[in-house]
Design goal:
- It contains 15 helices and 18 strands.
- The protein is an alpha/beta fold and 415 residues long.
- The relative contact order is 0.10.
- Keywords: Coiled coil.
- This is 6-hydroxymethylpterin diphosphokinase MptE-like domain-containing protein.
């Protein structure tokens, strides 16, 4: 790997030769303009007065533009290539950045800690810097890529989410703060609508009838559960778009609580005539104030209803939680279980992942891979008293989770 300072039309920048290819930070023509464009885009998203975390030093032009625009906000910078950072500190670029009192360089080992403490809108990535991340930090690089995809997805739907939020708040439904630890001491099952759900329905029906284990469901899985005579203890909807209406159309659950994200599609929420609870999500700034005012928690969403439901179940006191129907893959080339509105045949997939049995490979997608990684990260940071089981018995293998048969989980000794 070779680092070279090169001249451009407006200001010097840095070129990195890696794997016989050249990477130029910012632009080989006008790095200042490119850095300004990057900073302006960031300024549209960041939460004012909160600290900022930037991954990637680059040539520093983007950091300088950001520091100039936000002189009273602390900007933490993490570079994942230590060799590059050592070299960078010998250049005039570094001396220029050091002149900004609000910029702090942080060691790589602090990255995870900062990620948990800094608002997701204030986590920024210099994309070219990701091209020089060494193999030892490939997992962090992939996590940041997934993080950016989720941020972009939220940004693309922000208007829709905001409209739903305003309408949902007017419903004045209670939150979940008063339900903290309601199910402590109870085993819990999180039911998703993956293709493997079909084979688990008979045993789930037995578990349901025994009334010893709490069953929580994602909205998509409600219809196949009801068709098998299973009424979940509660279920969740989070998507801000109209197609979620198919999940609840024709369903009457007058005694079953619906937990819904504050930005979930409003008309879908109105379909439910039973009890409702609004759930405030971390990362959607408009939800932070009402959550604080009501003493309600901010839940992590992870981008999917199952990931949001998991964090909610933990808040409700779950200490032994099992996944069912969480394939995170296209088992038998199917997207969902039978009797779901979203079910379809999936062909021509190119991505594969390790299967549940750790022997074979199963087809998957980028989105499903992002969700799987979220489950894996969640398992890594979970408290010691939380036991997580994958009882899907199909689909993808989820690192960090204990893979057991649903019948085994059924008979585990309760805490």
């Amino acid at each position: 790997m070779k680092f070279t300072i090169i001249e451009t039309r407006t200001a010097p920048t840095i070129q990195v030769e890696i794997n016989e290819q050249n990477r130029v930070f910012h632009s080989k023509y006008d790095p200042l303009k490119e850095a300004e464009t990057w900073a302006n885009k960031a300024l549209e998203e960041v939460e004012v007065n909160d600290p900022i975390l930037v991954f990637g030093i680059g040539a520093g032009h983007h950091i300088m533009k950001l520091a100039e625009a936000l002189p009273k906000q602390t900007i933490h910078v993490v570079e994942l290539n230590s060799k590059y950072e050592q070299w960078f500190r010998t250049t005039s670029f570094y001396e220029t950045i050091r002149s900004f009192e609000n910029v702090r360089f942080q060691p790589i080992k602090e990255a995870a800690s900062f990620l948990t403490r800094i608002h997701q809108n204030n986590v920024l990535i210099q994309k070219t810097a990701m091209d020089i991340v060494p193999e030892e930090f490939e997992s962090i690089k992939e996590m940041l890529k997934d993080f950016q995809i989720q941020k972009d997805s939220i940004k693309n739907q922000i208007d829709n989410m905001t409209t739903n939020f305003k309408k949902n708040v007017r419903l004045q439904d209670p939150g979940i703060g008063e339900l903290k630890d309601k199910y402590r001491g109870k085993k819990m099952i999180l039911v998703s609508a993956g293709p493997s759900l079909d084979k688990q329905l008979p045993l789930l029906k037995q578990i349901h009838d025994e009334k010893e284990i709490i069953i929580a469901s994602v909205g998509t899985a409600v219809k196949p559960l009801l068709k098998s005579g299973i009424t979940p203890d509660f279920f969740m909807v989070i998507d801000p778009n109209e197609p979620t209406m198919h999940q609840l159309e024709g369903i009457n659950l007058p005694n079953t609580p619906l937990f819904y994200l504050s930005t979930a599609y409003h008309n879908t929420i109105l379909l439910h005539k039973g009890p409702r609870r609004i759930v405030w999500q971390n990362g959607f700034q408009k939800a932070h104030l009402p959550a604080d005012e009501r003493n309600d928690p901010l839940m992590e969403t992870g981008g999917s209803v199952a990931t949001a439901l998991l964090d909610t179940m933990v808040f409700l006191g779950g200490e032994q939680i099992a996944l069912v129907g969480q394939d995170l893959a296209f088992t038998n080339s199917m997207s969902h279980a039978s009797n779901t509105a979203a079910g379809r045949k999936v062909e021509g997939t190119v991505m594969v992942t390790k299967s549940y049995n750790q022997i074979d490979k199963v087809p998957t997608s980028k989105n499903l891979t992002i969700y799987r990684k979220w489950f894996e990260r969640y398992a890594k940071k979970k408290p010691l008293n939380l036991k997580l089981y994958n009882c899907t018995e199909g689909g993808a293998y989820i690192d960090g989770w204990e893979h057991v048969k649903l019948s085994t989980f059924q008979h585990l000794t309760k805490k």
